[in-house]
Amino acid sequence: MEQLLNGVALGALLMVLSSGLAMIYGLRGVANFAHGALYMLGAYLAYTVTERIGFGLALLVVPIALALVGVVLELVFFRPLQHRSHIELGLVTFGLAMMGERLVTLIWGEGTLRVLPPEFLQGTTSILGSDYPTYRLAIIVIALVMAAVLVLLLRFTTIGLHIRSASQDIETAAIMGIDANRVSLIVVSVGSALAGLAGTLAAPYISLNPGMGDVFLITSLIVVVVGGVGSIAGAMVAGMGVGIIQTIGAVYLPSFAVLLPYVLLVVVLLWRPQGLAGRKV
Amino acid sequence: MTLYSTPDTDAVVAAENRPKALHRNRKGRGIGLAIGAGLLLIGLVVPYVVNDNFTMSLLVTSSLMSLMALGIGFLARYLGLFSLGHGAFYGCAAYAVAIATTNWGWGPLPAVIFGTVFGALVALIIGVLVVRASGFGFLMLTLALSQALYQMSNQTVMRPLTGAHDGKLITYTGNATFFGLSMSDMMDPGLFWPVAWVALVVTGVILWLFGRSRFGTTLEGIRENEERMRFSGFNTFRPRLAAFVLTGAAASLGGALFALNVGYISPDILSFGKAGDSLVAALIGGLGTLVGPVLGTFLFVYAQANFNFGGNIHLLTGVLLIVVLVFAPGGITGALTKPYRYWRAKLTQRGKGAEK
Questions:
Q1: Is A155 on the interface with B (CB under 8 A)?
Q2: Which residues are bridge partners to B265 per DSSP?
Q3: Which DSSP string corresponds to B188-251?
Q4: What is the DSSP letter of A279?
Q5: Is B168 helix (H, G, I), strand (E, B) or coil?
Q6: Cα(A22)–Cα(B313) distance, rounded to whole angstroms?
Q7: Distance to chain A for B194, nearest Cα, Å
Q8: Is residue B86 within 8 Å of B130, Cβ to Cβ?
């Protein structure tokens, strides 16, 4: 039971992170390699804000700060380079990821840092007879709420409709009168904000070190591929699935667990190359 | 034929017509081989000119890494595929050499052959999974699978083979020699240089010949319009896989020789950063030409050794990568050959005008 909840907690984080990645991919056709760096930046900013003011505020401030970073990304890189090949743009984000890791080290140092959750979330809560850290429950609740809000926004608002149509076919959407640049600005900043939120939520759960972005980036790239490239719902389902499988796997096959996401990737590729929810291109 | 050919399918037409043009470029091949032989001889003089051991070791490392960059460049040029996975073949081959010599007591030469074959085999297995993908799929999958190998090499279960986090020190049984080089000679950059340089030039020439052959033209056709190539009766999966394994073998040779030269393998060789380094170096050098990736790698290794203030090399290469991609997508060689290409295009245009 406890392990299952751990899996759900990791899965919830992956859901939030991967849905941002999938949204940007759908719209700009670019797998944002800097997403891991954004997540890491979110976690480190959360550390600083928590030290100065408090964790509650970090939950609010960090996503906003990351949304601004997203705006910069869109205006400086994605928009001016949108007519270049997608690969080139992707490699630009790879360059950003390389820089990000180093910048974080320069600002916050190489050592590992810890963030403490607020006091009322520090204890344990009893669920079905077993004690479980309250903070992890909070992660699950916040992340699931965010995911639900995102789904509702995408399904039932005008801008959500625009985002979905633009990620299906950006050119046709533009012909139909949708301002693709505006939609993209929103998507990239929301995607970055979600990465920031995931980083903030993860900060008290893991220890911060400059390599943390890479691991998560690769896992969430796997999630996006498994879920079906460009499919937000697919990424969410796959994120939760990968989180649970990896955590449960760690219990039963300790030395094999880190490889599980990769095995899953290979299996899905052989069985369904376009991903679980992907359309045949 | 001209009725249907649009500029982007020129290569397809060329592939379809290839059998007729088979004997046309004999002369060009002779010139190329002569240049290769010349480079080979010039390179062999280098240890007599450069007396400084540090520079020499940088040159050896550059040559070995260039083997990987050559492979990445070949894939990018002929198939338009960008690989983050060649570091994996480089690393696997290095580990294979270390395991063959240290655990099984093989001599260096069989170990290098084993390492190269093993790396190529890994490339075959990964290739079957990834070469169907194109563009981003390929980039992400090569990254993910090479990271899987990195994780695997780090597992405690693998300790007897790879040494896990501690890395692996290579030892030989008895007085093993490699082309007359003893163990300490192999680690001497001046003495090891001919091996590295010959491997680089020969591999470069081989890849160049493959690029000019029918195989290369087929690959270009697949790059431009895979569907049309299929309609024309080409199997498009096998050439892609063959190209992937060929370039993987080049990277593996580099890794196998690297293992001999350094004598110690750390799991870092398979890491995320390393996987990117070579692609970045190739991009900065320029993917449009054969020498671009090699030039990029030499510059990269030099910069890494000399401008690595407090470990900021990735910050600098990140900035440089973005600058190159945004302002000079052809890389350094692309920027250098631009005036030449412009001039040649002008001349041929004028020639065509005169014909009319």
A1: no
A2: B168
A3: -HHHHHHHHHHHHHHHHHHHHHHHHSHHHHHHHHHHH-HHHHHHTT--SHHHHHHHHHHHHHHH
A4: P
A5: strand
A6: 30
A7: 34
A8: no
| Tokens describing residue A101 | 């890791």
For domain B7-355, give the fold. ABC transporter involved in vitamin B12 uptake, BtuC (1.10.3470)
A92 to B155: CB separation less than 8 angstroms, yes or no? no
A177: Cβ contacts below 8 Å, ≥ 6 apart: none
**Which residues fall within 8 angstroms of residue B345, CB to CB, at 6 or more apart?**
none
pTM above 0.95, yes or no: no
Token couple for B196: 């590295």
pLDDT tens, per residue, chain A with 281 residues: 777 888 888 888 888 888 888 888 878 778 888 888 899 999 999 888 888 887 878 888 888 999 999 899 888 888 888 777 778 888 888 888 888 888 888 888 777 787 777 767 777 777 766 777 788 888 888 888 988 888 888 888 888 888 888 877 777 888 888 888 888 888 889 989 999 988 888 888 777 887 787 778 888 888 888 887 767 888 888 888 888 888 888 788 777 777 788 888 888 877 776 777 665 44
User: How far A155 CA sits from the closest chain B CA (Å)?
Assistant: 27
Task: Give CA–CA dist B100/B114, Å, rounded.
Answer: 8
Contacts of A264 in chain B (CB under 8 A): none
Give a three-class secondary structure readout of B277-332: HHHHHHHHHCCCCCHHHHHHHHHHHHHHHHCCHHHCHHHHHHHHHHHHHHHCCCHH
Angle (CA) B310 B312 B316, round 5° = 150
Q: Does B315 touch chain A (CB under 8 A)?
A: yes
Domain boundaries, chain B: 7-355
| A113: β partners | A208
Residues from chain B that touch A98, judged by Cβ atoms under 8 A, are: 273, 276, 280, 314-315, 317-318, 321
For residues B227 and A280, give the distance between their C-alpha atoms in angstroms, rounded to a whole number.
15
- A145 Cβ neighbours under 8 A, 6+ residues apart: none
Collapsing DSSP to helix, strand or coil, A243 comes out as: helix
Say if the Cβ atoms of B314 and A102 lie within 8 Å.
Answer: yes
d(CA A259, CA A261) in angstroms, rounded, equals 6
